[in-house]
Amino acid sequence: MQTQNTPNEPISYDGRVGQLYKIFFLNIILGIITLGIYHFWGKTRYRRYETSSFSLLKDRFEYTGYGGELFWGFIKAIVILGILSIPLFWSLVLFDDISDQLKDIEKSTKAAAVEIAPHQGTAPNAAPNATAPTAAGVGETHETNPIDKLSPEDQDTFYTALWIIIGYWLFYAIYIPFVAVYGSLRYRASRTRWRGIRGHMTGSSIIYGFVGLWHLFWKVVTLSLWLPFGDAMLFKYKMKRLTFGNQPAEFTPQYGTLFWSHISTLLVTAVLTSVVFALCVAYVLHLNAVSAIPNDVHVIFEKIAQAINHDVHNKSILVFIPLLSLIIIGFISRFWYRATLVRVQYNNLHFGNLGFRCRIGGFALFRQQLGNFFILLLTLRLATPWVTQRRQRFFCKNVQVTGEVDKAAIGQAVGEKDKWGEGVSSAFDINIGLF
Amino acid sequence: MPTPPSARFFDGKSLQPYDAGVIVEDQSITITYPQNGQDVVLHWPAKQLQIMEQLSERPAVIAHRELIGARLIISDSALYQAILPLVPKKQIKVAGLSHSWRWMVWLFIISIALLGLALWGVQQSAPLLARHIPENWDNKLGQRLIRAFAAGHEECVAPQGKAALNVMITKLTAPLTLQKPFKVKVLKFNKKDINAFSVSGNYIIIMSGLIDFADNADELAGVLAHEMGHAIEHHPTQSLLRQLGIKIMMTAAFGSSMDFGTKLLILKHSRDDEYQADDIGVKILSQANISPQGLSHFLEKMQQKSLHLPLQEFWLDYFNTHPALEDRIQRIKVVKINPQTQPALTAQQWQDLKNICQETAPLSLQK
């Protein structure tokens, strides 16, 4: 564990934006010419330069991946996903057919209803009992579920296809991103060296996908109360399987710190949004000439309801502005939680006697990430190399290595390297950086 | 004889750095470094050498293909130049680009020009491709899009209203030589939904809110003529092909579709399409002896309405596919009005058309 006397070694970055731009533009040219196939080789060249721009104790890091690995990994992922998606394609075709059938049923029912309806008009004096079946018949056309009119076999097929489609949606939208993140991290770890020693990661991205789903489930069920625990446990799961050389990583999460950070950002959001809402209420009441704020809560709500009914703009003020505030305040305050998460991750991660010291603050992270977002947005991503520089410098400014690196008894990594590139993460353009 | 240290060496087994001496021979290099008080001597044959990083402002990194992780770090230019000819060319990796700024400027110009050319190519080829897409495909595409859009909405089918609509369509299309007829559908929507659009397969969809919003038949005829202009020029299919092409090009160039940039490029073309559809629409109206001022008046009303949009709708409207209404209105207003213009429909027909949604039925796209 690190002590007061543990030396801190800065990680430095000396990449040049001009050099990154050269690679970036070359990638654009060759990307266009090869219709994107060069992208995998271009990405590799970019990463190689980016990684070798980092140094620790004057020794540079090294990225040893190949474009071919990324390309074939991507092809493999696409083929596997394509084969796995055959039931989805089948379900979509069936769903489409049954939807057409349903439309036909609806159309014929409607036509029948139109034929029946005039009889109601022609017999206005008929006894209620006599017209009731007709009226009910017309009513049924709107209330009965059209699916019930399908044959039992078609109903079964419809529901089976529907469940398969929902299942695949969950698979692609929720499960696959976890798989992609793990696969990418595993590949990047095995292709990054420092002083000739590479990283290594064991474990299955498929299993990690299920672990990710499990925590996501609890995050939703507990209305986000599980979020800090889930985040820390997912990181722990990955780090438990990561080694630098033959030295396994150790991560001891600080659940309490994360939990309070999470709760405090939620509280700040709730309090500030309430203040905004109160101001909006006061403004609307003022606009509607309610001079004094009534004491009774019911009266306040009554006045608000009257104000909303009176003018649609009041509704905009009372709904739109607080909602917008909730989103903005919630979004900004989450940077403090994210900064805490990053600090907890680094400050409690060790490779033997080597550790990290991270001092990323919420505001700094907010400024950095929002800045990067707007730079990319306004330059249509042409400033990607500039953003890379900003990101890497920010990392180096805030993260140091602790411990006596030269005395660390770390040997070469054992175990096979990943042979299939980043696989699924290449397919989804997920880019997980080690830095 | 011990050689003076000229490089830094890592054996690939530990993090320990060594100061090593390097002697370059005909077909190999010899590395000598001290370990535990003794000199370790390694001979690396030339065919096993790999340059992981070339010497630049950074030291060169040389590896042995079979000694995993072993690295020789060289800052001495003379030593690097001596080793370089021994290394097989295909075993030299490159990270950065060792070209001048001048070369970089050229690279920038070439990349932008190439990207521009590719996007221009997409723009130019979209109309050509759109015209040659088999009719059957075009129809199916249009039907699929309409089904997705109109899910939960019924078609307005009141017979008198449909008859009035047919009168208007016939009036507008009689002077035209059409390869296939327009399939105009009125869909029942909320009053607030004021829109009409053409879809692949010569479909034109009118949302009922637009008929409610129109003050007279000339306004609706103006909108319909504008949409016919889109359909005649195959704009819906063109637009889909263009979007696909731009996305492919952007993904090829940047590795992802760059949604914001792609959207801006698509918007630019959509706006050009709007002007073209206005021009054709005005021509159709003139040939049918209907005043194009109905269209300009309708657009003026839309302009007035957009001024009263709540804040959130204003932002949504900001990135609209349509150009500034004022500009379009002025372009239509300057068109000389044919003195023989007649109302698009009689008062009774217009009233029937206004009531077209009094009867509805599930949408049918077969005819």
Q: How would you describe this protein?
A:
By secondary structure, chain A is of the alpha+beta class. Chain A is built from 14 helices and 10 strands. In chain A, a hairpin with a 2-residue loop joins strand 2 and strand 3. The model of chain A is unreliable at 119-141 (pLDDT under 50). Chain B is 49% helix and 16% strand. In chain B, the strands form 3 sheets. Chain B has a 7-stranded antiparallel beta sheet with strand order 4-3-2-1-7-6-5, with helices on one face. In chain B, strands 9-11-10 form a 3-stranded mixed beta sheet. In chain B, a hairpin with a 6-residue loop joins strand 6 (60-64) and strand 7 (71-74). In chain B, helix 6 packs across helix 8, helix 7 packs antiparallel against helix 8 and helix 9 packs antiparallel against helix 11 (325-333).
Main attributes of the structure:
heterodimer, A: 435 residues, alpha+beta, ten-stranded antiparallel barrel, 14 helices, 10% strand, B: 367 residues, seven-stranded antiparallel β-sheet, three-stranded mixed β-sheet, 12 helices, 16% strand, rod-shaped
Structure described in brief:
The complex is a heterodimer of chains A (435) and B (367). Chain A is α+β, with helices and mostly antiparallel strands and 435 residues long. Chain A contains 14 helices and ten strands.
What is the topology?
The complex is a heterodimer of chains A (435) and B (367).
Chain A: E1 8-13, H1 17-33, H2 39-52, E2 54-56, E3 59-63, H3 67-84, H4 86-122, H5 128-143, H6 152-190, E4 192-194, E5 197-201, H7 205-221, H8 227-240, E6 242-244, E7 247-251, H9 255-287, H10 297-310, H11 312-347, E8 349-351, E9 354-358, H12 362-378, H13 384-398, E10 399-402, H14 424-427
Antiparallel strand pairs in A: 1-2, 1-10, 2-3, 3-4, 4-5, 5-6, 6-7, 7-8, 8-9, 9-10
Chain B: E1 7-10, E2 17-24, E3 28-35, E4 38-45, E5 49-53, E6 60-64, E7 71-74, H1 77-83, H2 101-132, H3 135-150, E8 155-156, H4 159-173, E9 183-187, E10 196-199, E11 203-207, H5 208-213, H6 217-232, H7 235-254, H8 259-287, H9 293-307, H10 311-318, H11 325-333, H12 347-354, E12 360-361
Parallel strand pairs in B: 9-11
Antiparallel strand pairs in B: 1-2, 1-7, 2-3, 3-4, 5-6, 6-7, 8-12, 10-11
Helix pairs in contact in B: 2-7, 4-12, 6-8, 6-9, 7-8, 9-11
